[in-house]
Amino acid sequence: xxxxxxxxxxxxxTGDLHVGNARTALCxxxxxxxxxxxxxxxxxxxxxxxxDASHEEGIYEGLRWLGLDWDEGPNVGGPFGPYRQSxxxxxxxxxxQQLLATxxxxxxxxxxxxxxxxxxxxxxxxxPQRYSGMGRNFTAAEIAxxxxxxxxxxxRFRADPKPVRFDDIxxxxxxxxxxxxxxFVIARGDGSALYNMAVVVDDExxxxxxxxxxxxxxxxxxxxxxxxxxxxWTPPAFAHLPLVVNRRRQKFSSRDGAQWVGEYRTQGYxxxxxxxxxxxxxWAPGDEREIFSLEELVRxxxxxxxxxxxxxFDPQRLDHFNGVxxxxxxxxxxxxxxxxxxxxGGLELRPDQRGYFRSALELEYERLSHLNRTAExxxxxxxxxxxPDMRQVRYRRHSAAETARALExxxxxxxxxxxxxxxxxxxxxxxxxxxxxxxxxxxxxxxxIAVTGRKATPPLFATMEVLGRQRCRERLQRALAxxxxxxxx
Length: 489
Hints:
The protein has about 500 residues and is mostly helical. Helix content is about 50%, strand content about 10%.
């Protein structure tokens, strides 16, 4: 195409950013950035009862978190505003009046009861439930009578009984038969445009070159193609992405996992991981690679590589991506992000503990699958009142009393070891186990429980180095007090 690439994301602010909309936004963003085009954000808020300013802000925040910045939109402006549909009603109305003037649309004075009766009859006869066009044929007298009765007309497009087709970048040529598109409503009784009318007008006025959206919009596209034709406008190129479904090949819903991008953020997913996962919902790079940064995707993404088949949302694969990206992050970057989750998770962190936090995280990040688990994994590093439960030790080869005597020697070793670091502690502890005639593991496990309160931790001596001499000493003393009670029980 010779015109500049202009794509848009057009969410309704009836909820925060949905994962399906996020996938659509990502594809539009990647296309715009690769081809040097513009990515436009347009808020479709014509459903006044369900639209909410907080949801609109939630959409902005979700896109920002994913790293998807936009070139034009309600909060940044641009040459083709306004960018909220509710502020464009006059523009929509002009197009509706043009269709009425050319008799491509008409005022429909049928009542809700008449339309319901028609649908009921069609249902009883096993026919498709489509509007018959009865309102086309009312006489002037019948219209006057209905006006007098207070019937408020809708505006319907006058659909000719002919096939409709369009060429789709993803799905190929798609056709609808002459009976598949009825006289659809394009404006309400109050004159406000409905979805299909508003979208066509806004895409035309904003010079959208490509409409990239979900496959569930195909039926709308037939109607929109007819509107473009009736208004004398050239339609944009269309690309319909595969639907996102669960493992049962049913529409993805809240029963299958979180639906809003904000929920994934709360659950400790990295935006890099979610972006990496979302792009694989229908797209493939053509080789075995699966880890892509946003910058790499800008270079690699092509609509022509989007699959036609529905895309299965696999939470386990998302978890895999999250673990990979956690371990790919620079440790300082990871520590900065994890600090926020740790604080939210209940750890009482002081500003002067950032270095200590980073050192502890360096030991734990291999086991960290989601950032919201940071506090759970690392709380023993920050619990100054930790009292180890020495009942966790299995006293098989060595009794509680023998273990207490061994830990007294460990406490002395902690006081005397210099430097207090991983390799020196390991060498001294192995030597102590040898002197005692114990297997190393029989000494290391009660020591681990004593200084951490847990049986499963990062490597013991690296953990002791990070905890520091003072914390290890205090916890060993508490462990010995607990062992004294066990020995006399």
